[in-house]
Amino acid sequence: MSRKKIALIGGGQIGGVLAQMIAQKELADVVLFDIVEDLPQGKTLDIAEASRIDGFDVSLKGTNEYKDVEGADLIIVTAGLPRKPGMSRDDLLTTNAKIMKQVAEGVKEHAPNAISIIISNPLDAMVTLYQKVTGFPHHKVIGQAGVLDSSRFSTFIAWELNVSVKDINAMVLGGHGDTMVPIIRYANVNGIPVMELLEKKYKSADKAKEVMAAMVQRTKMAGGEVVKLLKTGSAFYSPASAAVAMAEAILKDQRRIMPACAYLKGEFGVDGYYVGVPAALGEKGVESVMEFSLDEEETAALSKSIDAVKTLVVDMERLGF
Ligand code: TXD
User: Fold this and answer.
1) Whose CA is nearest to atom 36 of ligand 1?
2) Are residues 13 and 141 in the same domain?
3) What is the value of pTM for the model shown?
4) Domain interval for residue 133
5) Looking at the structure, do residues 161 and 129 belong to the same domain, yes or no?
6) What pLDDT shows up at residue 90?
């Protein structure tokens, strides 16, 4: 069996951690592309020189040329500027749309059969633009947001309940912005509803709701919380972990159910937009969207989030993209 190949477009903070994680897991050979001369070459050399210590046999190549992404099974795009303190993800729209267009053209020419995971912000708009420029089938272009947002939500729940995060199942749907929708009703600890455990802990339904509301709010603002602390960039370890989990599901055809930014054709009442929903990820990319019924409150929150995605996409089109 020949080894898989992953091309990482963008060799900055997330791109570097992605390259290291993929190598350490021996998930695939890695090509790290960036427009900055020598940067991807330096990072891949540094990572490769740890191969004896970590014990991995993969090839790592840094490059400034798109021709090197040829033959990639999977592309992960992080090219684009990150947020600075005080900025919203949407403030990155114009700059990153220009970059995303270039990236899409490069990948289209050199790796037309690859599945693509987009990470750059503003996520929902960038996925939409990348698909539009490449013309790749929708199921082969996926955005990463929900895996990370859900992991953040799960982490806060684990801390609150003082239990292992491994036993938490919680998902965040909708767009990757302040309107994202953590699904409280299905958040559980090995099947036990989180709300029930909070009510037991605090012996009060009101207090349980208040604690949950604070966790939901922290989840929505979690990216900004890290930006404020780092001051010079945004989260990069956890976004890389999230994309690697998706990459693994795809390359190993695991069909894991992950909240992913997928193109909807009527599911959840949405037609023709990329939105974060639970999706089965396998060798075809998005194998299927797992639609389920939402209650009134969730429906309202999701439709608000979808409206925010639509506005972003319309703004982008107005800018000529
Ligand atoms: O969950 C999520 N989806 C995210 C997304 C979570 C956190 C951050 N997220 C976004 O990912 C963030 O807002 C940015 O838009 C991207 C990348 O974040 P990162 O922290 O890796 O940014 P860096 O360190 O600035 O790296 C970006 C690299 C940098 O090396 C640039 O030289 C390069 O992108 N770059 C390009 N590469 C290829 N082609 C072009 N045109 C290009 N322009 C810049």
Assistant:
1) 79
2) yes
3) 0.97
4) 5-145
5) no
6) 83
Ligand 1 contact via 177 beta carbon (within 6 Å): no
Q: Which of 110, 138, 139, 176 is catalytic?
A: 176
CB 81 within 8 A of CB 124: no
Catalytic (active site) residue 110: no
Cβ neighbours of 1 (radius 10 Å): 3
Q: For residue 47, what pLDDT is reported?
A: 98
Residues 49 and 162 in one domain: no
Q: pLDDT of 131-161, one tens digit each?
A: 999 999 999 999 999 999 999 999 999 999 9
Quick one: 27 and 17 in the same domain? yes
161 with 267, same domain: the answer is: yes
Q: Are residues 123 and 252 in the same domain?
A: no
SS3 of residue 290 by DSSP: coil
For residue 168, give the nearest of 215, 214, 130 by alpha carbon. Answer: 215
Q: How far is the CA of 13 from the centre of ligand 1 (A)?
A: 7
Distance 10 CA to ligand 1 centre (A): 6
- What is the amino acid identity at position 219? T
